[in-house]
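Extended Data, panel c. Modelled sequence:
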Amino acid sequence: MNLEQLRGFATIARVGHFTRAAEDLHLTQPSLSRQIATLEHDLGSQLFHRARGNIMLTAAGEALLPLARRMLADEENVRTEMAELAGLRKGRVRLGAPPTLCVSLVAEVLEVFHRRFPGIELHLSEAGSKNLLDELAGGLLDLALVVTSEHSVAEKSLASLPLLSEELVVIDSTGKPRLGGRESLDLKALSRLPQIVFSQSYDLRASTMNAYRAQGLTPNVVLEGAEMDAVLRFVEVGLGVAVVPATVLVDRPGLSAAALKDPQLTRTIGLAHRRDVSLTRAAAAMQEIILSTARALADRQPRITSLLTAS
C-alpha cells in the first residue's frame, strides 16, 4: 500500500467515477484501475461496488476512507512543515468556522494573519460545527472554530480549547428601530416582533427555536432561510429584528442590541485541533492570533466573556 494508491482511492470516493478520478489525477483509467486492484489485493478486501457504472464504497471502503484522508493530510502537513522551515514565508493553513464567526472573529484573525505572513496560503471552510468536526477528524482542516455548547468534541482524535462565551442578543436597526429603545426584553415580547430567522443549517436557529418551544411560543417570522450577512443587512434596513451572537455587534454602527431575558441564551466557542498531529508552524501562528483576537473581542464587548486563562 502506498500514498498514490490511497490518493486514487480517495479521489474515486469523492467523485464517484473512475474516469473522472483518473482525469483529476492526470492518469489513464487503466492505470488507476490497476492501482485500485493492487490496493484491494494487498488489503484482501474489495473497496468499491461496481454496478452499471455506479461506484459505491463497500463496508471495507467506508472504513478505509477516513484513514486514507488522514494519511494524505499528514503527507501534506509534512511537505508544508518542510516549506515553513524557511521562516513562515511559505505554507498553508486550513481553518474551519461557522458563518456566525466568519463575519466577526474570523475576519479579524485573517486580516492580522495575512498582514504578518503574506506568503502563507489561507483556506477557509465555512460550515456548521458538526461538519467542521468531521472535516477536522478526516484531516481536511488544521483548526476549527466550533460551537461547543451545541456540538461537544467527542471524537477521541480531537481536542478543543475553550475560547469564549457569548450572549445571544436581539439586534435592531438604528435607523428604523422596532424595539422602542428597550435595553432588554423577554422571549414572549420578542415573539410578537417581526423576526428574521436563519437557515436550517445554523446551530443558532435550532437553539432559538428550542427556547420558543420550551415556553409554548411561536415567533412572528417575516423571513426565514437567510445567511448571516443577509440577516444583518435586512435588520439594518428595518425589515425585522433577529437573534444573533454578541460577536457580530463589533464595529456595526447600523445595529443596536437588546439583551434577551427569560431565558438568557448563551453559547460557547472552542478551538478544535487533532491530537494525533502536531500543528504546523503556520497553524500554530494562526492559533496564537485566534487566541489574542478572542481576548480582544471580549475586552471590547461586555456581552462576550473570554474563557482563556491569562498568559
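The longest helix spans residues 59-84. This feature is highlighted in the accompanying rendering.
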